[in-house]
């Protein structure tokens, strides 16, 4: 898939495909995405790398999550989490309270978790393969 073929009406979440915490978070979002707003791409995939290059983020600066709104904007680190939370229902929506904290402080916490996510949650040898039911959610 090319950048020009991305769905303009979907929010695209780029995530670390080998991270257990990230994969659990993707499953959490899928379960609560009642309006079918999100699509998912592993950062390690060819498409993930094309998107990162297209929006101008250096691969070395990306350690976990990016929310890309094609043709509009992108968010990463804690800002991506907050933007995703805006669209979800349930407990995760309380994450919006973190928006009250300064971005720099939120990102310090985010970076700490990102640095330790493999140690705390483990990692897979390869990216997750979606079930047939979920395949349409992944680009």
Question: Could you explain how this protein is built, in words?
Answer:
With 139 residues, this protein is an alpha+beta fold. The protein has four helices and four strands, in the order E-H-E-H-E-E-H-H. It has helices at 20-32, 46-55, 78-87, 103-121; strands at 11-15, 38-42, 65-69, 73-76. Helix 1 (20-32) links the parallel strand 1 and strand 2.
The averaged pLDDT comes out at 84
User: Beta-strand percentage?
Assistant: 5-15%
Radius of gyration: 14 Å
SSE series: EHEHEEHH
- Helical fraction: 25-40%
The tally of helices reads 4
Helix/strand class:
alpha+beta
Low-pLDDT runs of 5+ residues are none
In what order do the strands lie side by side in the largest sheet?
2-1-3-4
Largest sheet: 4 strands, mixed
Query: For the terminal residues, how far apart are their CA atoms?
Result: 8 Å
The outline comes out as globular
Number of strands: 4
Core attributes:
139 residues; alpha+beta; 37% helix
């Amino acid at each position: 898939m090319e950048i020009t073929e991305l769905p303009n009406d979907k929010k695209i979440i780029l995530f670390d495909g080998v991270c257990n915490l990230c994969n659990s978070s993707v499953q959490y979002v899928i379960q609560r995405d009642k309006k079918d707003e999100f699509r998912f791409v592993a950062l390690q995939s060819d498409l993930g790398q094309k998107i990162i290059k297209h929006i101008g983020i250096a691969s070395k600066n990306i350690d976990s999550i990016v929310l890309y709104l094609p043709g509009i904007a992108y968010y990463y680190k804690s800002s991506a989490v907050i933007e995703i939370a805006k669209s979800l229902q349930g407990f995760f929506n309380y994450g919006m309270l973190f928006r009250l904290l300064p971005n720099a402080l939120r990102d310090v916490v985010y970076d700490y978790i990102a640095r330790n996510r493999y140690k705390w949650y483990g990692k897979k040898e390869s990216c997750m393969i979606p079930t047939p039911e979920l395949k349409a959610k992944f680009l």
